[in-house]
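Regression check, calcium ion case 197:
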Amino acid sequence: MAIHLFKDSELTQQISEGSLTNPDSDVFNGTDGESKDRQLYLANEQTTLAAAVDGATTTIPLAEARFADGQIIIIGSEQILITSGGGTTELTVERGYGGTTAGNHSSGTKVYSGYNYSDLTVQPVDEVGSSEASWVKLAADQAGLDAAVAGASLALNNKAHSTTLSFWRRIIVPAATPVQNKTDIKLRLTGTESPII
Ligand SMILES: [Ca+2]
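Current build output:
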């Protein structure tokens, strides 16, 4: 999916997926037991235009390489199909895709992966050895963490391409637990990805 978890509302710290290059990590006291809360953010793949484009050009300059060939991006209300240049900061595209109108866009305008999401759910999972997924509580806001069921998934429902959702997670390490370099608890995001019609 062209959607990611981030540690910050500015979406600069993407949480790594399938590697530990930038995990959602904390330091815990496993002797006495400790819990820590963090707000996480969920947003579409996105960047900005590195330069202004007019309605005629089929070259789109990006601030960051964020998209793949065959994906649809959206700038303002215009949908754009990437025909080549995916994985680079200079896309070759088909403008005005899906019945939208090709227009002028100024430098710095947001460029989103052009998909909406429905039935989004985030779930703590641990498939290595014994499951410690129950160390995780999820809730829509921090106050809700106290009453959240340990290990339960959280429904995030629907997300439009340009919106950012957020939720809170609490990691609870039981007392007398060795936690050095524990890396097996993950957050799994599921949902339905739909092109914008
Ligand atoms: Ca485990």
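Comparison notes: The longest strand covers residues 34-44. The radius of gyration is 20 Å. No diff flagged against the previous build.
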